[in-house]
Specification:
Elements: H1 9-12, H2 14-25, E1 43-45, E2 56-58, E3 64-65, H3 80-92, H4 99-106, H5 110-124, E4 138-146, E5 162-169, E6 174-180, H6 185-195, E7 201-205, H7 213-216, E8 219-223, H8 241-256, H9 263-278, H10 287-296
Parallel strand pairs: 4-7, 7-8
Antiparallel strand pairs: 1-2, 2-3, 4-5, 5-6
Helix pairs in contact: 3-10, 4-5, 5-9, 8-9
The structure holds zinc ion.
Length: 312
């Protein structure tokens, strides 16, 4: 008989969920989030009929704690196994999953669903700042426009749209994306310089923002999309098709699933798409493993409702 992934114990019961999250976040046994104590002889698991699930007591600082403390799960009333279901769905859906769908699935308020998904995006956010393109590799750079900036009248060009810059390391297959204020060279080039090694060859389109890139990097190849040129016919390594492909997944998701996104929250949606892409199937990362990687990112990523408020 077919078996759903949601038959796994961590999705079905709180006991299963706590055991799973503890095994992921505490591979060497519980760690006290108050004082950092990880001496297993000095931590006691509290057990008793009326004791809260997963409760431990630290004998160093004498404070109680659970694995939820100090993570995105803290101060949330949602059961842990439901959190894990949502994390799994967000990790397994290539184009994302709408807040409305989460709200229906959990039968919670839209506010709860919205905040929940944003906290998971925080967990997905990578802190990696290692520059791309070491050892003379190729890095593709491109920008795209999406949605509409608040308070800006719609015009024909892209001025009223939100702007995103993407860097893609062709050797490692990793992408890095960020929201940018505008597409001038003064804005774009410092970001590229901070994220790409000088020995790299960079590939862009003919946008003027990249005009002087050749001065800084080992090589700069361009194609003219305006003239319908997507690969340089003399040197077929010159193209930015990989990063274009990245943007196409991102845009299909943003248009189809997350229609209403303001600039204030755009960086978290970027983190979500980037996370799935950088941990994609091509690297033999299954949905389950991808969800585990996201889960390990929940620590120290507390996002309060105030800092991520729905209003504005
Ligand atoms: Zn302690």
């Amino acid at each position: 008989m077919a078996k759903s992934v949601f038959d796994a114990p961590q999705f079905k019961s709180e006991e299963g969920a706590f055991a799973y999250v503890e095994a992921q976040l505490w591979p060497n046994g519980p760690v006290c989030p108050h004082c950092g104590n990880c001496d297993q002889g000095r931590i006691r698991k509290m057990e008793g009929k009326t004791t809260r699930l997963g409760l431990h007591k630290c004998n160093e600082c004498r404070k109680p704690f659970t694995v939820r403390m100090g993570t995105i799960f803290e101060s949330s009333h949602l059961a842990l196994h439901l959190w894990l279901q949502v994390i799994h769905l967000m990790c397994a859906s290539k184009k994302g999953i709408s807040t409305r769908q989460i709200q229906r699935m959990l039968q919670c308020s839209m506010k709860t669903a919205w905040f929940l998904t944003h906290r998971i995006r925080e967990a997905m956010r990578s802190g990696d700042v290692t520059p791309f393109g070491g050892n003379g590799g190729v890095v593709e750079v491109d920008e795209t426009f999406i949605g509409k900036k608040k308070g800006m009248p719609k015009r024909r060009a892209f001025h009223h749209k939100m702007k995103v810059l993407a860097l893609l390391d062709r050797d490692s297959g990793q992408a890095r994306t960020m929201v940018i204020e505008d597409v001038r060279a003064e804005t774009i080039m410092p970001i590229v310089l901070a994220n790409v090694e000088r020995e790299a060859r960079i590939m862009t389109d003919e946008h003027s923002g990249y005009r002087d890139a050749g001065k800084w990097f080992a090589g700069h190849g361009t194609t003219s999309h305006g003239r319908g040129e997507y690969v340089n016919l003399e040197d077929r390594t010159i193209h930015s098709n990989t990063v274009e492909g990245y943007f196409s997944i991102f845009k299909r998701g943003m248009k189809g699933v997350y229609q209403h996104c303001t600039e204030q929250h755009l960086h978290r949606y970027l983190a979500e798409f980037e996370f799935r892409y950088n941990n994609r199937e091509k690297f033999e990362i299954s949905d389950t493993v991808r969800a585990e990687i996201a889960l390990r990112g929940v620590v120290g990523k507390r996002l309060t409702y105030k800092t991520a408020s729905l209003a504005n």
